[in-house]
Structure prediction request, 255 residues.
Amino acid sequence: MITKRIIPCLDVLDGRVVKGVNFKGLSDVSSPVTLGKYYSDNGADELVFYDITASSDGRALFTDILKEVASTIFIPLTVGGGINTLDDFDRVLKCGADKVSVNSGAIKNPNLILDAAKRYGDQCVVLSVDAKRVEGKFRVFAKGGRVDTGLDAIEWIKRGVDNGAGEIVLNSIDTDGVKNGFDLEMLQAVTEVVSVPVIASGGAGKIDDFITLFKTLPKVDAGLAASIFHFGEVKISDLKQELYKNGIPTRIIKE
Prediction:
């Protein structure tokens, strides 16, 4: 049975990790280098690094801080933010990323996923989708959740996988930072239409939220969270022990 992954997320703004609620009201947390090393040493299965304003600012992703993070961790690293071309893929991978996450760049140019998958392989291409309910439908948002694209999220994700995305990160804007649990309805809709790994993002507030996620939706491969890990509300080692006790396979690090 495939083990479930626990993935902390570093939302980076001006070289610092920040966190908000529903993609708004960002507050400073810590250094991404310090946090990244901590998570690598303390049981995280992977790490996600988002330069959260690269797309909205119309600039390339900061690479100096990324290189420093990559050099201090020993777990897979997924990087996103301002990924618009194959050159951006190349630059980020050369900085130490294992996978590259595309969001707004793929909306502007859907062939980006296809071209990147051909050059680097499906396993390297992660489609990150910021989705929100609009008039009863799951809608794709761009520019850090600020722009309604009009795209149906389920159809967009299916298209991305058909083009070669090897993994999906589903960020529910409705539940982001609220800490009332993952968006199970939205996640179920996605897992029913794709066969690639799906990472749940947005809404984790306690250990039970992860247990509920994996028991309710066994097709979900990983749970991603930020503030509960950043602020010490949940220790990854404690979370994994509880998952194990509940019959959910996970990689346990012996202390």
About this structure: The mean pLDDT is 91. The longest strand covers residues 125-134.
